[in-house]
Amino acid sequence: MVDLKNQYLKIQDQINVGIQEVIDTTAFIKGEKVNEFQHHLENYLNVKHVIPVANGTDALQIALMALGLKPGDEVIIPTFTFIATAEVVALLGLTPVLVDVDFDTFNISIDSLKKAITPKTKAIVPVHLFGQNADMEAILQIAKENNLYVLEDACQSIGSEYTFSDGRQVQSGCMGDIGCTSFFPSKNLGCFGDGGAIFTNNDELAEKMRAIANHGMVVRYYHDFVGVNSRLDSIQAAVLDVKLKYLDKYAVSRQSAAAFYDKAFGGCDKLIIPARSEKSTHVFHQYTLKLVDVDREGLQKHLVDKEIPAMIYYPVPLHLQKAYADTRYQSGDFPVAEKLSGCVLSLPMHTELTKDQLEYITKNVLEFVEK
């Protein structure tokens, strides 16, 4: 699904120099490389504060901890997403309130969001799924009207921009109160292990989240908050600092591959290509097709037999997951998410796809669905 080796080979000299500098200084934790990457990412995102942490899930948890929510407070999240979004809500004793998604964009449904708000609602977590921003202008207006926090899950969308009706363009993860991302190796900006970051323009929240990520310390050995131990190590920061320089170029490569897929599949009525929002750029963390009257498992096996990886993101929506079984929700409650879980298939999407590979992939997909 992702060709990390060939991506590395193109920048290996820069990567190796950065890693060697960390080894030479032996500043493996909270080293200068972390500070450099933090500042470079703040400049790239045009955001006041970036707090590097150990992974994307920690980023979400620390962000929620900083908001001061209490057990029983409700947090609205889409039911069609990776489990981490709900996981952190549940771990903190908060109440996840699930909502449906938009069939075209995979992102949180504005109508479902409005209906889910109660007096106990404290926060909304829009997930910018597969590389495209949710309708943030509408979400922020709803949050303002109801005095709610907005915590953006931008783990799949870093580098994507959202355009507001007044013409402002803002980076993904930098529109709400807090944004979070993951640097898992397969992400658009990925390191060589685990990593993550939190974004905010709020000085008070930034100070609190930095402390929470470091055992709740503001001053060494003086613990003002209940905290966790979540740090981005210096070697990962060195890798990310190099790759950040290429993030926009990587996005163009992914968009070019997506355009090739679109052209190949656009005329096939059994394949629905990914929709593009008029308000958001799409950086294609995944290229996800919707299948119409196609044997999905058969197609996936056909592709695997041809040495083409294909993945199902996500086969079971959150409200039907065993760990999140809840009497509030039954099968059929979120028809769009359930339909998507039954028909989506993601194809290889990365920066190193060649024309020959794309032709081979599309030829084999069409060979199966049009037979």
Structural notes for this entry:
The chain has 371 residues and is of the alpha/beta class. It folds into two domains: 4-244, 3-Layer(aba) Sandwich (Aspartate Aminotransferase, domain 2); 247-369, Aspartate Aminotransferase, domain 1. Helices cover 40% and strands 15% of the residues. It contains twelve helices and 14 strands. It has helices at 4-25, 32-45, 56-66, 84-91, 110-116, 136-146, 203-213, 234-244, 247-265, 296-305, 335-343, 355-369, and strands spanning 49-53, 74-78, 95-99, 121-124, 149-153, 161-163, 169-171, 178-182, 196-200, 217-219, 222-223, 271-272, 287-291, 344-347. Strands 1-9-8-5-4-2-3 form a seven-stranded mixed sheet, with helices on both faces. The mean pLDDT is 97.
Annotate the secondary structure layout.
Layout: H1 4-25, H2 32-45, E1 49-53, H3 56-66, E2 74-78, H4 84-91, E3 95-99, H5 110-116, E4 121-124, H6 136-146, E5 149-153, E6 161-163, E7 169-171, E8 178-182, E9 196-200, H7 203-213, E10 217-219, E11 222-223, H8 234-244, H9 247-265, E12 271-272, E13 287-291, H10 296-305, H11 335-343, E14 344-347, H12 355-369
Parallel strand pairs: 2-3, 2-4, 4-5, 5-8
Antiparallel strand pairs: 1-9, 6-7, 8-9, 10-11, 12-13, 13-14
Helix pairs in contact: 1-8, 2-8, 3-4, 3-7, 9-12
Quick overview:
The chain is α/β, with parallel strands linked by helices and 371 residues long. It has helices spanning 4-25, 32-45, 56-66, 84-91, 110-116, 136-146, 203-213, 234-244, 247-265, 296-305, 335-343, 355-369; strands at 49-53, 74-78, 95-99, 121-124, 149-153, 161-163, 169-171, 178-182, 196-200, 217-219, 222-223, 271-272, 287-291, 344-347.
